[in-house]
Specification:
CATH topology of the largest domain in chain A: Rossmann fold
Strand order of the largest sheet of chain A: 7-6-5-8-9-10-11
CATH class of the largest domain in chain A: Alpha Beta
Largest interface: A-B, 29 and 29 residues
Oligomer: homotetramer
Largest sheet of chain A: 7 strands, mixed
Strand content of chain A: 25-35%
Radius of gyration of chain A: 21 Å
Number of helices of chain A: 8
Number of domains of chain A: 2
Structural class of chain A: alpha/beta
CATH architecture of the largest domain in chain A: 3-Layer(aba) Sandwich
Number of strands of chain A: 13
Order of helices and strands of chain A: EHEEHEEHEHEHEHEHEEHEE
Distance between the termini of chain A: 25 Å
């Protein structure tokens, strides 16, 4: 039976990285079933690799493999690396405000088996979407965010996530900014969907901005959240054609279809360990 | 035999515009073969219309039709309007610097009959593309632009265009800024192709900017030139998918395919009288 | 207050159609707020038009307008035509088998207000999706179709629709063929979503066919149902890029996103009276 | 200085392929700068791989590497394989009939340095494009094909190619069928551009077929030529949106833009040794 492990690597590029990695895996009897790599520059750049190998391992054997890989391959080559069991489902908390399309799409894809995620918690600053979420048999927590007292909401969020640890937080049209301090304490990746083709139309009201500028395409951007608003590493983007006939509500409607698809792809790729941070950008294998 | 006239209208919206226009045309025996309209708001907005009608007219009859249309329809309804003979080819001057892909594409399309334009003049601030242009049997003028003495280049350009009047100027990757004063004196529309999805990456080096930001799509934008750099009304845009593998030269290569198609569409639509300015945006029928 | 009526016309092309229509509408005080037209050939072709006009009418006044339009405009010009109140919501029955993505997407959009439809009835040849449908507060009827006794299922369907008349039937991945006799008796338009870019891969298992052929894009097609399988007039299509890495389940997953969007567009356009049949094809205004 | 070699492999999948390959390359001092792989099934499927490695080799050392690779890696693992010097330009003959857009696009990309190809010969069954081709400084041969005497044309083509051996033949809108016998004698890959989204609208007049069927997208397909018309392994496809307004000449015009881009991609990928035949389909790395 297949037991797939994913190996993610980044390190200074130099000859022999693939060979050293492949040799050690071959020695253990692993079969490399997928492999993708990228170098920013073969001479002095950064090397990124994602491998999937098939190898039945119990916990002890996996620990031993990791120790050996660290000692024989990763440390000498100054790798940042991790191994992930492909069968381990990611635990994901979703934050949402009033717009339900991205949230419902993620929950529906999870139910359908398209996303290998568990969702222990949906948090909103509104009561509005409780019924929709509970219909999926999931927990919905209303955490109000009051202007000038944002700290209380953030504290409540941390408390909830302390009790229900997650691997990833998704902002599925959550219209509140997370403070840098909160991001540090969360200590897991946070993916946001922004309803424009970044870097165009960062900030509030991107569809109204797009209408005013008269663009002929609108877009959506899924990115990792950093302290700087709408400025984190981009995971995925897409666009859709619009015309002068489309007023702001039409842009919102047309954009919603792109937002949900772009966010779903980003979450899927993240959960399949396909996305590596590369400075202010990403490598998506 | 078909003799198509195009009628372009914009005016404050109110009941009866279509009826008044159609009635007058019907009275003259014209057959409306195409019609498109748009209102920003039926109650107090601006109304735009483009009609094509089939009516054999000699010069005197056309003048009479225009006089009658002005008196009976356009003036009472406060229209800005014009009629254009669809068979009249637009005269177009093309300005270019070093990159030939947009220029050649326009010339190929003109030769193929895709663009109903005549090109009396190609002007460049370099000698580089003379042979390519002259191979099409077209005139190439090298007008150097020297930093600090841009006025001399602009004067020469005006002189050339005074001798060869044109209906449209196309900046086919012309990397110099036209001064506001020059734009006023040119007194014809100027279309530029910018090698990014505006408003993202305005200004210099958009592909390098795009690479640094890590976008997953790059684009191109054709727009009317105004005094404000890369900020005129957008006529057409398109995007193409890129990945972390694409370095700046690859973005330049992939972008070139989009630039030339976007510019060609914008020029075609302009020359078919399909583009109406609407404040800082356009209506494209 | 706006009260929009839609006028749909097709007739032999000849001079004066727009004028005659616009004049009569102007006489009644109507304001034409949108208009789109198409001719297959100004000389001897067929003319199609869709107008939206703003005019407050009670039932009696509307009947009078229709009578006058028929007598003064439509009959002399041999028009096929109808007027539709834009505020009247279409009643839509949805038929589905096992795949829920198109169904749920339509129901979400209807709930969100994106589709101005009421859904009195969802019919399936399986029990599977009852809970999903009833969660929207909608009626779900299980009508089994037994091989060799398809007539019983069709009779039951007709019985249900006799009690709940609808304006449109949508086959949202309904995997049974409707007989020509049934289509005649239904006497309303039927829209189907086919999970390929027709005419490629008609019939069963289009994604497996696509994989075997090694296409680099897959698609979906929404079309009116006729007696000939997968051969009715196409309303909308779209495609998405795939690679050799995508196996049949991946094609099914990627295709589902296109199917639901394509079907939703087709249903929306149909319900906005934007789609006119033109022989074996459609005009979509 | 970089000296890149490409290694292309296909073989029955089994554990250790990557390791054996990478180990041998590491032993020789090669640095793997790019690697891509695909398996149709890790258990009993076919494995495909493309590696690029950096290793300065003179002719003797390369021969030795190939011998050693064959003996130690390829033969034991039943590989079909080849190594290609990335700096070696492919020699390409282009066949064309009357439409110039694909031909000119390829020649222009070659001149620009986008395609690392040399074009010793352009052959046409018409005189029409001689001037265009000779303007690029290339050789143009007119080889008429007379109905009923196609064999004479094929013989002349073989004679020309015997004197100017090529690595690839591109049919850039060449509207004659190459016989199976000719394909055998040519003994190099042949890439064709078909002006439809195959398998839809194979054969003659695809745009007229598309118009009659009323499709909402048209496409183009680049594929390897086999004896069966329009049925060879697909390398690349793309589509563009059309409407009821687009008559057949408009489809031809819009399609031309897609044809040239699709063909250029296919030729580029082929010449970068990115395309592996996999039965009736392709793997494109």
């Amino acid at each position: 039976m297949a037991s797939i492990t994913r190996l993610l690597i980044s390190c200074p590029d130099q000859p022999g990285i693939v060979a050293a990695t492949a040799r050690l895996l071959a020695d253990t009897g692993a079969n490399i079933v997928d492999s993708d790599q990228h170098t920013t520059d073969p001479h002095g750049g950064t090397f990124y690799m994602r491998m999937e190998f098939d190898l039945a391992l119990d916990a002890a054997a996996r620990a031993e493999l990791e120790t050996r890989f660290a000692r024989e391959v990763a440390d000498p080559l100054q790798m940042q690396w991790r191994m992930a069991d492909a069968s381990a489902r990611k635990r994901v908390a979703i934050l949402v405000s009033r717009e339900e399309h991205c949230l419902l799409d993620l929950l529906w894809r999870a139910r359908r088996g398209e996303l290998a995620i568990d969702v222990p918690l949906v948090v909103s600053n509104h009561e509005l979407l409780r019924e929709d979420v509970e219909a999926f048999g999931l927990r919905y927590e209303h955490v109000p965010v009051v202007r000038g007292r944002e700290g209380e909401g953030e504290a409540r969020l941390l408390e909830l996530l302390a009790a229900e640890p997650v691997d990833l937080i998704v902002l599925a049209r959550y219209m509140r900014i997370l403070s840098g301090g909160l991001l540090d304490e969360l200590a897991v990746p946070v993916i946001n969907i922004h309803h424009s083709f970044l870097p165009a139309f960062a900030g509030a009201g991107p569809y109204a901005q797009a209408k005013a500028r008269g663009v002929k395409l609108i877009g959506a951007t899924a990115h990792y959240v950093t302290e700087r608003l709408d400025d984190g590493p981009i995971i995925e983007q897409d666009t859709v054609r619009v015309t002068h006939r489309d007023d702001v509500p039409a842009l919102i409607r047309l954009g919603a279809d792109i937002e949900r698809v772009v966010l779903a792809r980003a979450v899927r790729w993240h959960c399949e360990d396909r996305v590596l941070r590369a400075g202010d950008t990403t490598v998506v294998f």
